[in-house]
Amino acid sequence: MAEDDGDAPIRWDSTARGGAGGWVTASGGTSRAGPRAGTGRGAPPGPDTGGGGFSVRPRVLLFAVGGALVLAAAVLLVAGFLFSGSTGDAGPADAATGGHTSAGPPASPAAPGGEPSRAPTSPSAPSGAADTQAAALDALLTRSAADREKVTAAVSAVDSCASPASVAAAEEALDAAAIRRDGLVSDLSRLPLDALPDARSAAADLRAAWRHSADADRAFARWAADAAGCSPGDVPRGSAFTRAAGSSELATAAKKEFLRKWTPIATRYGLPARDDTRI
Fold first, then answer.
1. How many domains does the chain have?
2. SS3 sequence, 193-224?
3. Nearest partner of 154 among 185, 176, 181, judged by Cα
4. The whole model's pTM is what?
5. Which domain holds residue 56?
6. Ordered mean pLDDT values, 10 residues apiece, the chain (279 residues)
7. What CA–CA distance (Å, rounded) separates 187 from 125?
8. Assigned domain for 229 exists
9. Which residues, at least 6 apart from 275, have a Cβ–Cβ distance to it below 8 Å?
10. Is the same domain home to 151 and 63?
11. 7 and 62: one domain?
12. Quick one: 64 and 148 in the same domain?
């Protein structure tokens, strides 16, 4: 039996004890600290090689796991901060729209040329063409009002029969008024009214009124011719006068119907209000 090398340095040998490992002296013998054959007592546990010769200390493993958890928490914190900064404080409504809010109504879709399409203009909004057409028709009414004053003065001159000259002058004035009425009818027929609501129907009533007025003017002119040589206060009122009065009544009825349709249009476009005595 060999002597016990009590002072020899020892080392761990993984091949000792048939591969189970054990402490051995530097000279190669099994240390007394190692297991003795048949004693049943194991040697102090050596490093855990896992069968591959590499060991991991528990403290190192804890540090590795802890570091990974800290790193993951930092990444989550930074990501949450960036996300909240890009979306702001989104409310319930923002969650449904992806966090985006709109400051106004959606933009109109782009037109084929790349420009935003214009919102359709309300049909009730006055246009430049409508303003022009309304003003042109109102100008015809102003001309007609001036003619009516001349006709009224001429009829009064015949009825009073102040002198033969005044009756003759009245006859000429009435014939001229009838011609001007015809001119008003022609000008009205050429006037575009497509931009004015209900203007075509109103223009038809006005055209009829002016035609009846022209008939009345001519009938009054014939009455003036029949009154030649009359005496003041004694002017006969024959068939010409009766026809003139009938045509005048028809003209007045047509003017009132026109005004019923025209007055809302005139008000809308800032034109003066009129009555049947001013047409």
1. 3
2. CCCCCCHHHHHHHHHHHHHHHHHHHHHHHHHH
3. 176
4. 0.55
5. 51-81
6. 52 68 60 43 45 47 61 64 49 42 44 44 59 96 91 95 95 97 97 90 97 97 95 91 97 96 95 88
7. 27
8. yes
9. 259
10. no
11. no
12. no
